[in-house]
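Here comes my example:
=====
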Amino acid sequence: MSATSPTLTLVEFQFAAPVIEWRGPAPFYYADIPVDDSDDVKDAAKGLEYWGQVPVVVRIGETEFTTALFPKDGRYLLPLRDAVRRAEGIELGMVVDVEMGLNRDRTRPDAPRRNLG
């Protein structure tokens, strides 16, 4: 854990989201953030977003990490890296409980917060 990496000290959003797969050149897994929660994130993130993405600090189970939300069809998708999915036993179709805050200092996007090795 780096001293420059953010920690989730303020939980701004809590929601349950289904894990979906979005196929591209390789399969990618996301937590599909509910529309109402996505609207709340969009309002809170005004001025933070870049190319439509929103930097966040996330906790799922015991795993805390930073990433950026992707906009899709009027809602946001939360990327779930393989290391995060393995650490928490997350599989396609599951519903995950998410605690999330905006990463206002944009420190180290997409860096895991615990030893996932």
The chain has one domain: 13-102. Residues 109-113 have pLDDT under 50 and may be disordered. The beta strands are 13-23, 27-32, 54-60, 63-72, 75-79, 95-102. DSSP finds two helices and six strands in the chain.
